[in-house]
Sequence to fold (161 residues):
Amino acid sequence: MDLKADMAVPPALQPPAGPSEEQLQLKCELQQLKHQLELVLEELKTQKKETCSLCVRTVEQAEQLAQMQDSVLRQSEDNLKMASALQSEQLERKELARKLGQLQEKMVQLMALRLENPDPRKRQAGRRGCLSLSCILISAALVTVSVPPSPRLGVHHLKRM
Fold:
């Protein structure tokens, strides 16, 4: 009877010899998840490298922009200085032109006096005065017309005519 009792135990309760189908399926899913995780990690590493590279480029470009802004600021300051120097020079030229006009008026007056004066010695003195005034007028006219621009402006060898 013992034999019958041993046979009464159903064989299905015994553990299978290899992994079950469910275990194989879980193992396969686990491998797929590991592979996907590796892909995501690689993508993150690539994105991190790109982000670092972009950060470096951004810093470099910010430095370049700051240098260019400094350069523009210096150039603007130089332009203002040049404009101020040019304005001063123009005022000097106007003043010279005004003085030249005054000298010309004086010359006309001296010539009129010389012609009106009957005394030969006074006429001779008036002539000398007119000649010296003529020299002054010519010199002043040359200075007014042909003075090169100031070296402060950085422009050389130019003459106004």
